[in-house]
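Subgroup meeting minutes
Present: P.N., E.W., G.H.
Scribe: E.W.

1. P.N. recapped why we're keeping a running log of single-chain structure predictions: easier to compare across weeks, and new members can see raw inputs and outputs side by side.
2. G.H. added today's entry (307 aa).
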Amino acid sequence: IMKIFADFTPLVEPLSLDEAFLDVTGARRLLGTGREIGTQIRKRIFEQEGITCSVGIAPSKFIAKLASGHCKPNGLLEIAPDRILTFLHPLPVSALWGVGPKTAETLEQLGLRTVEDVANLPRATLIRAIGQAAGETLHELAWGRDFRDVTPEDVDKSISAAETFAHDLDNPEEILQEFLRLTQKATARLRDNGLFAKTISIKVRFADFTTINRSKTLPLATDSAHEAYEVVKDLYTALRIERARLRLVGVSLENLVSAAPEQMVLGARDKGWRDAERAIDRARARFGRLSVRPGRLIENSEDQSDE
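Output recorded in log:
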């Protein structure tokens, strides 16, 4: 899917294996309006991958993401600049990036239930209620202001996957399940690009927006989800933050190389995890990405597919 996106613009910022921000400003003269380009992308994905997709079109990443969510699973929604506040302001406060259950509860205690309520609250009052960084960010977002550029990911430097939770998580098993899913995504992209990673990093963002990162550099580069997840799990466990409420977790594969020597282990099986994962890649390419996956992810994947 990323290759299809790249056929329309080089400015592609991946969010996951099948989701990304695209800046098509430079492609409009050749390919048409944003709506026409979005229609072409949806057509190509259906023809080549046999799946539907949603496309949100807007002047900023924040509004485009909201628009895409509102037209799932198979639609296209364009929010023109003069319609941003009409679209945004009636939405619940939870639509704002960074608003989890705790922040939503704080806002509701102030009588703020919609984005418009947040927008009309004095900036200083909002900052006193939820803190400087969060208050400034939510004030800007509530007025539809998001000036971040689409930043293409340089696969020569890193490949990553992250997830911001709809509700803060504090169950270690659920958090490890998310880390496993993200590791599967990131290593699949690694293998798709014929790359290996020597450094594996995790990112953890707490409910109060505090963020920490931890990493480990391996003696030999790897492209194995099994090997990478063992490192990810050890890094998370070493944090000793059981029951801490987390808003986001992420996995990053860094220090990439195009070839990796295999360490010979005495008594190792002829067919190891790398062979198994390549067989899984072939099955997914033929039957779909959910056709083969770890057992602990089956229930989570089915729940997501039902939404």
